[in-house]
Amino acid sequence: MYCADCGKELSTGAEVCGGCGQPLAAKPEARDTSPHHGLVALVLGIASWPLLLSSFLPFGVALGAAAVGVGAVGLRSRGRGMAIAGIVIGGLCVLALPLFLILRRIFFVLH
Q1: Is the CB of residue 46 less than 8 Å from the CB of residue 52?
Q2: From CA 98, how far away is CA 46, in angstroms rounded?
Q3: Cβ of 37: how many Cβ atoms within 10 Å?
Q4: How remote is the C-alpha of 12 from its chain's centroid?
Q5: Cα distance from N-terminal residue to C-terminal residue, the chain
Q6: Cα separations in angstroms, 35 against 47, 64, 67, 71, 111
Q7: Is 9 helix (H, G, I), strand (E, B) or coil?
Q8: Is the torsion defined by CA of 39, 45, 51, 57 positive or negative?
């Protein structure tokens, strides 16, 4: 790495330039700028509900859990709103599982 002011090569871990004495700026934290994780979380969350309500119940729960996981990763990216929506929709799908199991059991016993 080289000093931006004088061009002298910098030693590893240096806080100031040895040539000109200028303090070295701290590197900004890397941040993912793509909204893909948020979008994927939202799509997984939405897709989990039809599967939960159909005979593919385990796949619906799996997609809901995946939406929560991918959404958690997406919270640090630009598509944060979509990630939050994916977490909420997928989380509700996973939390609805016991209710649907109970209702299915009651429905099939009564009819």
Answers
A1: no
A2: 19
A3: 24
A4: 34
A5: 75
A6: 18, 19, 14, 11, 47
A7: strand
A8: positive
In contact, 77 and 35? CB cutoff 8 Å: yes
The residue type at 39: L
Does the model's pTM come out above 0.70?
no
Q: Evaluate whether 83 touches 44 at the Cβ level (below 8 Å).
A: no
- Look at the block and give the residue holding tokens 């997984």: 44
28: left (phi over 0), alpha (psi -120 to 50) or beta: beta
Q: With contact defined as beta carbons under 8 Å apart, do 7 and 23 qualify?
A: no
- Read off the tokens for 75: 């919270």
> Rounded distance, CA 2 to CA 64, Å?
48
9 Cβ partners below 8 Å, 6+ apart? 1, 2, 3
pLDDT digits (tens, 9 = 90+) for 17-60: 888 888 877 554 555 556 689 999 999 999 999 988 887 888 88
